[in-house]
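To: structure desk
From: M.T.
Subject: fold request, one chain
Message: Could you run this one when you get a chance? Sequence is below, nothing fancy, just the single chain.
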Amino acid sequence: MHVGLLAAVVCLLLAAPAIAGAQSPAPVGYDVSYPLCGMPYPAGQAFGIVGVNAGLANTPNPCLPAELAWAAASPGLASPPVAPVALYVNAADPGNGVPDWPSPANGTATASTPYGACDGTWSTACGYLYGVERAVFDYQLVGAAATAVAPTTATWWLDIETTSSWATPAEQPTWAALNAATIEGFLGGLRASGATGTIGFYSTPLQWLAITGLTAQTSPQQFPTTSPDWIAGVGSPAQALANCAKSFSGAAVVLAQFSAGGLDADYPCPASGPPPAVPAGLRITSHALTRTQLTLSGRVAPTYRGHVEAELDETYRGRTVRVRRGVPALNGSWTATVRLPNRYRGLVSTATALATTRAQDGLKAGQAHLVIHLHG
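Reply: Done. Structure tokens follow.
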């Protein structure tokens, strides 16, 4: 992967109550995979989450047996309940240009799918079948590792990140449907293999939207809310705690990731799940962009008394690395201006504006989004 700024994301948020302190919430777990091969594993973990494949959907993690043994030594948690060991797989929809894409010609497209027969093209049927076949591959890798970890009852996580290969609007007009069908295939493949435990999603609201075209409000139309969320992140423990309220699929957030000494640590979110919605009548009505600033305007219920901030989230590899804010006034309508950093000038980038309002008590009060093309 090349180093660079991958995206600029604009969000509107109502600030939740401040989180006191920045010390690591305890106890926490860690997630490990092939990058830690030959390196010391974290110590004192409450639970461990092990990557089954090596970054791609069709490559095995060469250190899977050792990492499963490390995770199996974890005690787990009783409240909120977290098992000692969980598994995650890198999901993707690379399209019919890869050798292992299902095709009738090579005998890998004989199974039926909810989308009809797979003809070998980049279609929802073949995408679904690709997900099934890759999930079966991953399930068998864990079974062959011959450890005390049972793939049947373990919790599985599907890693849904923009760093993997997915259909894009530039490649396919039905990109969102293609990607969603492939994710459904991964779910179906794990279930068909014998997985009876929880299967959840690892992502962020922005990456989930970019890959599936869905939000926390629209995702339950396609994916069950029984599949929980694990929020990706590289920030502080305090940010992880705040992310426990930022569901991307509409399901409960049960884990939130943060950085700890160069490792990926995971905070177990309170069992209460996402905060309930309260009305705010939030709308984004217009936006204006110059070389130096972005101005967003909208409306909110005149009686609303929550705080509003306009945020420009700078992201690298789908993860927020810096946030810039502007504060608008509230009187039924609002306007917020955010200065653009110098390095955006001369670039063309697509941003997603998510509007999530929060009342003074921290409860979610509404959400809206739009896609903006940032022209420097």
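Reply (cont.): The helical segments are 64-72, 124-144, 175-193, 205-212, 237-243. Let me know if you need anything else for the meeting.
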